[in-house]
Amino acid sequence: MTTTVAHVHDETDAPYALSHLDALESEAVHIFREVAGEFEKPVILFSGGKDSIVMLHLALKAFAPAPVPFTLLHVDTGHNFPEVLEYRDRTVEKHGLRLHVASVQEYIDAGKLRERPDGTRNPLQTVPLTEAIQSLKFDAVFGGGRRDEEKARAKERVFSLRDEFSQWDPRRQRPELWQLYNGRHAPGEHVRVFPLSNWTELDVWQYIAREGIELPEIYFAHEREVFLRNGMWLTAGEWGGPKESETPETRLIRYRTVGDMSCTGAVDSDAVTLDAVIAEIAVSRLTERGATRADDKMSEAAMEDRKREGYF
Amino acid sequence: MTSTTDQVANLADFAATTLLRFATAGSVDDGKSTLVGRLLHDSKSVLTDQMEAVEAVSAQRGQDAPDLALLTDGLRAEREQGITIDVAYRYFATARRRFILADTPGHVQYTRNMVTGASTADLAVVLVDARNGVIEQTRRHAAVAALLRVPHVVLAVNKMDLVGYQESVFAAIAEEFTAYASDLGVPEITAIPISALAGDNVVDASANMDWYGGPTVLEHLETVPVSHDLTACPARFPVQYVIRPQSAEHPDYRGYAGQIASGVLRVGEAVTVLPSGRTSVIEGIDALGESVDIAWAPQSVTLRLKDDIDISRGDLIAPSANAPATTQDVEATVCHVADQPLAVGARVLIKHTTRTVKAIVKEIPSRLTLDDLSQHPNPGQLVANDIGRVVVRTAEPLALDAYADSRRTGSFLLIDPADGTTLAAGMAGESFASKAETTVQADEEGWDF
Fold it and tell me: Where in the numbering of this chain does the Phosphoadenosine phosphosulphate reductase domain appear (chain A) (predicted)?
C-alpha cells in the first residue's frame, strides 16, 4: 500500500500566513489596479448597496493617497429607497467623486421603455445601463456581482468581455488562467470586471465590520410598514403596492440587499449591530437572493437570461 | 430570521480562517457532479431555497430523488443536456477552513478547462470509477495536475459500493495511480475510497469500509497544509500602476503599486528594477493605508524607493541579491486554449505578470500526447487542447522565472493581437518535475519532451 495519509497541520504556525479576508482584499485590489493600468475609461457601478460600497472602499485603499481614478455610475430605477439615495449622494460628495446617473424613469417618460404590468423595474435597468456605457464610452465597468449569489453568476469570469450590445455569451468566455486577466477588446466592446467574484455574502459583512464601513440604515433592523406579496415583505410605496387585497402592517425588519423597491424583500430581524447581522447571516438557511429578490424567481434561468441581455 | 444566543456562540467559527482553492477533475459519468453535490450537501453548504429549487426541477422531470448535479450545472444549456459546459466556481466553508472549488467539466474540452481550474488550485481531486480503474483520462488528469504543478493531488476512487467495498480493488488502483503520478513529479498523493452516491467517506466516515483508516475527502481538504512556499521564494514585485497624487498634501509622493508575486520585501532592502537594471533601496512600504516594515506574497502593497528612477507598469522590482535574469528567448510548455491554431511564425502578444510585449513563435519542437506522454516532434502547429513545447522570441526582454520556481512569475498568456483572443497558457522552463534530481540532464528519454 503506497497511499500517503494526510498530515494534520496547525495552521497558525505559518510565519507569513494571510487571513482569508486579507487574501480576498489583496486580490480585489490587484484587480482594481490592473484595470487602472490597462483601460482608458473605467467606471464603477454604484448603487449605494453593500457590495458597491465595499468596492468603493477597496478602490479608495488601492490608490491611496491618490484619488480613485474612476467615476461612478448608478442606474436609478426611480423606485429606490430614499435612505440609499441619500447615502449615495453623501458618499460621492465626501470622496470628491463624479457620479453619472442613468434613469429608468426618464426612459419611461420618453416612451423608450414601457412599465411592466407587475410594476417591477429591475429588468428595465438593462437598456439605460448599456446605453450609458455606449454613450459615455466606458471600456471597463466594475460590478459588485459575486459568484456565490446565483448559479449563473458562478460561471462568470473576473474579466467578462461584452460585445457592442453588452451581451454575455457563457459558451464563448475566455479561459481565465492564474491571475493573468486579458482585457483586450475591440472598439465598442467593453469588459465587465468583478473584483468581488470570490467573496461570499458573509465575507462582505465581515469585511464591512473589520473596516468599520458605514452603510445605509436599511441594512439594520428597523420598524417599517410592509405587506406580503409572493411570500416576501415589500415596502409600501408609490411604485404600486399594496394592492387592495394586500394589508400593510408594521414589522421589525431589515434588508439583506438593496435594489428596486418593487422586488426587494425585507427579512424579519432584530439585528441592529454589525455583529448581530453577521450572526444572523452565518446561520441563515436562505441565500441572499432567495430571501429577498422577487425578480430571480420569475424563471429558473432568470439571472442567466438577464445577463445575456447585458444586465450586470 | 431571528438571532438566538446559541447561534451567536458559533460566531467564533466564522473568524479568520485559511482558504483552500481546489479543482475537481473526472470524466463524464464517473460521478464528479454527484461528488461535488454531496460535498456541498453533506457539509451543509446548500441552503434551503437552493435545495428546494433542485427538488422542484428533479420532481418536474420525474426523477425519484433530487439530482445533486443540478446544484452545480447553472446554465440553461447545461441543465437541458445534463452536461457541464464551463468551469464554475463554488464557495463553501466549514468551521476549519473556507474553500473555493473550481468545478471543471470532464467532457471534450477537458484539457483547457482543467488547466483553467488547476492554474490557481492548491489541490486537485482526480476521480476514478472503481469498476474501471486507472484509464487514459485518469492519466491525462494526473499529467495536467503535474504540468500545472498543483501541490496536492487526491485520488478519489468512486463507486466503491459497486465493487462490494473491497479493499483489494481500492489498493490496486491507488498503487497504480500513485506510481504513475509520482513519476510525473506530483509531490503528494492521497487516495481515498468513496461512494459519492451513498455518501461513503465524502464528509462522513464510511461504515462499509472499516479497513480504511485515512481521512474522508472533506477532512483531508480541511487539514491539508496550504502552501506558503510563495514566501520562501525570492521576492518578485511586478509594478502594476504608479501612484502620484500630486496634491498639496502629498506633493512628492511616488509609489509603485502591485501585488507581491513571491517572497518577502523589507524596508531598507537593496532592489533592482528590471528590465532596465537600475538599482535603489526600499524606503517605505504602504500596505493599503498602513505603513509597514515588512510585507509578503500575496499582499497588495505600494513601494516607495529612495531614488527617483524611471519605473512604470510592466517593470519588475526584485532584491538586488536575487534578481532574475532577463531574456528575449522564452522556452516553455503551452496549453493551447483557443479554437484558432497556433503555428510556427505566428505573431502574438505575450502577457507576463503586468507586462505585455510583442513576440513571434520561432519553433514548436514537440507536441505531447497526454495519454502515454509520448512526444510528437515538430507538429508545425498546435490546436485546441494541445500541449506542446514552444520557443518564442520577444520584442523586449522579460524577467521570467521558471514555472517550477514560481507559478506567478513563470506563467504567461499568448494573445492574438488581432482580436484579443487568449491563445495559450504558458509555463516557462521544464515541463514536469523530475522524480529523481540526479537524472542526467541530457537524457532524452526524460520527461522534458
Answer: 42-265
Query: Which residues in chain A have Cβ-Cβ distances shorter than 8 Å to B250?
Result: 65-66
Residue of B241, B385, B408, B419 to mutate, interface with A, max A Cβ within 10 Å: B241
Residue B83 — very low, low, confident or very high, per pLDDT cuts 50/70/90?
Answer: low
Binned at pLDDT 50, 70 and 90, residue B285 comes out as very high
Instruction: Count CB atoms within 10 A of the CB of residue A19.
Output: 14
* B231·A15 Cβ contact <8 A: yes
pLDDT for B22-46, tens place per residue? 999 877 677 788 888 888 888 777 7
Q: What does each C-alpha distance from A252 to A218, A222, A233, A268 come to in angstroms? A: 11, 5, 11, 6
Whether the Cβ atoms of residue B345 and residue B391 lie closer than 8 Å to each other: no
The pLDDT tens digits for A195-233 are: 999 998 889 999 999 999 999 999 999 999 888 888 888
Minimum Cα–Cα distance from A272: chain B residue = B3
Contacts of B17 in chain A (CB under 8 A): 11, 19-20
- Tell me which residue of B75, B73, B60 sits closest to B32, measured CA to CA: B73
Distance CA B350, CA B348 (A): 7
Q: Do A177 and B75 touch (CB under 8 A)?
A: no
Residue of A nearest to B225 (CA): A9
The answer to whether the CB atoms of A170 and B179 lie below 8 A apart is: no
Q: Do A6 and B113 touch (CB under 8 A)?
A: no
Joined grid coordinates for residue A159: 474579466
Cβ–Cβ < 8 Å for B124, B118: yes
Nearest to A301 among B76, B250, B289 (CB): B76
- How many other CB atoms are found less than 10 A from the CB of residue B270? 12
B114: Cβ–Cβ under 8 A, 6 or more apart, which residues? B23, B25, B104, B141, B144
**Prediction ipTM score:** 0.89
Please report which helix (H) or strand (E) contains residue B41, including its range. Answer: helix B32-42
Closest to B223 (Cβ–Cβ): which among A9, A150, A179?
A9
